[in-house]
Write a structure and sequence with these properties.
Radius of gyration: 27 Å
Shape: elongated
Number of helices: 3
Order of helices and strands: EEEHEEEHEEH
Strand order of the largest sheet: 1-2-3
Strand content: 15-25%
Structural class: alpha+beta
Distance between the termini: 88 Å
Helix content: 25-40%
Length: about 170
């Protein structure tokens, strides 16, 4: 067993030195990369635990913007706390798609993953309950593809009208 403070080069990493240290929190001994300017005081487990306890998350974070953000695809997500009744619908970062949350609150229950919430007017930011409806996957998929194709064709017709091809 090496002694605390012993420095060693390992065969695979000839240029990198390692030092045998004990964690200041739990006393666990281990080999750590040697860096004289920044000695590690804690093992990985203690470091992660302390970081989680000290981290400013949610409203305590300096970067908090109200818990509402727009994600790829134009959908809006809402941050929910673990004591929220709709928390089981949240992802691992505690966010729920807003249109699903609006529908769940309207129904008074959590939504199942197989329940799709459809925007009637196709605008993903418009999460009014009047604009939302629940659909099964078989109902939702073809309708969404047809609407997308219709919009593409309407844009094409508009561009042809602008070019003088269509009266």
């Amino acid at each position: 067993m090496p002694e605390i403070g012993e420095i060693k080069n390992f065969k695979k990493t000839v240029t990198q030195k390692f030092i045998w240290l004990a964690c200041k929190s739990c006393g666990k001994e281990r080999w750590v990369r040697f860096c004289p300017s920044r000695p590690p005081n804690l093992c990985r487990g203690c470091y992660d635990r302390d970081r989680k306890n000290l981290a400013h998350r949610g409203e305590d974070s300096h970067a908090w913007k109200g818990g509402r953000r727009t994600v790829k695809g134009g959908y809006i997500t809402i941050n929910v706390s673990p004591d929220d009744p709709f928390f089981p619908m949240a992802d691992r970062n505690h966010y729920i798609l807003e249109h699903r949350l609006v529908m769940a609150k309207h129904l008074g229950r959590c939504l199942d993953k197989s329940e799709h919430v459809h925007h009637k007017n196709g605008v993903r930011e418009d999460n009014r309950i009047e604009n939302l409806e629940i659909q099964t996957p078989s109902e939702h998929t073809p309708q969404a593809h047809y609407k997308k194709r219709i919009k593409e064709l309407e844009k094409e017709v508009a561009s042809l009208k602008g070019a003088g091809y269509v009266p």
